[in-house]
């Protein structure tokens, strides 16, 4: 992919990485998405997606949601702290128009930005 794409190193691909995030991680949530996050040592944010058949039986709908998630992450990834982030779609996401999904994701990304890193003794600015 070109410079506007989502590089391979910014994606969570290994099952072990997903398992760690399911067990020990912080949580955020909205109406259509649930987010799990954990600090990594890579120096940049990585994205993992979980959009199951429970969200929609139609692959077209699941793929639309995943495309919107990747595009939203691509736009903000340089502003995010070095976290591994897994975004799980909820059943309500299937019938929601794209702009509404993107707006909810923007809110979730903004909540991630000010989170304090482990070992950081400073206060968190809001």
What's a concise summary of this model?
This protein is an alpha+beta fold and 126 residues long.
Structure notes:
This protein is α+β, with helices and mostly antiparallel strands and 126 residues long. The chain is 33% helix and 18% strand. The protein has 3 helices and 4 strands, in the order αβββαβα. Helix 2 crosses helix 3 (98-112). The model is unreliable at 121-126 (pLDDT under 50).
List keywords for this structure.
126 residues; alpha+beta; four-stranded mixed sheet; 3 helices; 4 strands; 33% helix; globular; disordered C terminus
Count of runs of 4 or more consecutive helical residues: 3
Helix/strand-derived class? alpha+beta
What is Rg? Answer: 14 Å
The biggest sheet, with number of strands, parallel, antiparallel or mixed sense and barrel status, is:
4 strands, mixed
Strand order of the largest sheet: 1-2-4-3
Number of strands: 4
Q: Ranges with pLDDT <50 over ≥5 residues? A: 121-126
Gap between N and C termini, in Å? 35 Å
Portion in beta strands? 15-25%
* Order of secondary-structure elements: HEEEHEH
Shape: globular
Helicity range = 25-40%
Mean of all residue-level pLDDT scores: 83
Fold blueprint:
Elements (H helix, E strand, L loop, with lengths): L14 H9 L2 E4 L3 E7 L6 E5 L8 H18 L6 E7 L8 H15 L14
Helix pairs in contact: 2-3
